[in-house]
Amino acid sequence: MAHADAAAHPSAAILPGGFRASTLRGAEGFFRAAQDGAGRWWLLDAAGQPFFCRAVHGVRASATDGVAAAAGDPAPRLRQWGFNAVGAGGDGAGRDDGLAFMATVDFCRAGALIHAPGVRLPDVFDPDWPQRAAERALEVCVPLATSRELIGWLADDLPGWAPAGTGAAPRPGLLQICLSLEPNFAAYHAAWEFALALHGGRLGALARAWGEPLANKEVVRELTRAERGLASRGYLRDEARWTREFARRYFTSTAAAMRAADANHLLLGCRFGGPVGESVGAEGVYPAVDVPLLDWTELPPANAGAPGPILAGDFCWADEKFINPAASSGPAPTAGSVRPGSPLAGLAHRLTAVERMLRRGRAALERAARHPAVVGYVWRQWLDEPGEQPPFARGLVHQNGAGAREHTELLAEFNVRAAALRPTTTTSLSP
User: What domains are there in the chain, each with its CATH number?
Assistant: First the structure.
């Protein structure tokens, strides 16, 4: 069935279930998104039931280096902890057990790849790129086009957009990196044409605007090789424009390829793996993206309205902003606040930091769930990374295969209450 929108229900302002017809995204019989009469966005599963997505990235059953077979089938553990979906990455575990899932096209495998520190993107300026993107989408999307458990498609898992840095030692941004590519990349020529056009076509004018002595184009490449990022106000202004143009081409071309190959499923943008800034975020939106998987730290203010449905991606409270005592507010918790049998018992010397992390993390997750645009969240990773040390590791499963109780107990409690945090009068939207 064709991708649905307001035209699919031209005579109905409010659909059965209390959803606004003009906001409906997705195809009937598959996962969709819609806004209710109170302005809250919802995912709807294939049966038309409201679905608050609770997923985990990187779920896998197969063994990895240093992990003992990942402690068997993850599906029972996910259900025990209240999760109802699997995110990007992993080895496909959970799909065959009836869990909803996200799938990745991986357009970075199509055509020339721009691969540099902080950057992993296809060369969307290559004249052959649209055809290669279409071929990639046909190869990957068609086999899952009729799946009712598939939530939607991610264009790429962890591409790199190299947000322009600031501070004492900024890293090269996307424009600088593209200006430093080899001439066989179309993005190299496009970047120089773009940058020079903003300054009358003259390198001298460009150098003055950026505050850099650019005697020739090779100087930019030398700065990039030395990992010295341009960071003047003039450069950052042009960087933002270039990044937005790159993102526009990326999202429109990948959306066209995916919709041509699979008109049934939602488009979820990218799993960014971290903040990407306004220039990328401004282009990864509807209609190129139905439900963006936005890094949870870049959610718009809840009181700014709900511009569209959002999945809060890469959520994790094992992060400096939750752990650092300087970031704490209010009185510090004490050992007496830990209930008997808690996984935190025996960590008295680290209790303050752990309790602060969990308290602040839970509050952030609950705020996200109450956000009128948020239709679900995805925990950052299934397994701890090598070298991570519990209780400050980020996985739900440790390297020895044991569950990370310091995370899973709190998440299981939250997952049971998640739907109740979003008061609603909506019911199902049956096909």
Answer: 6-164+231-421 (3.20.20.80), 165-230 (no CATH)
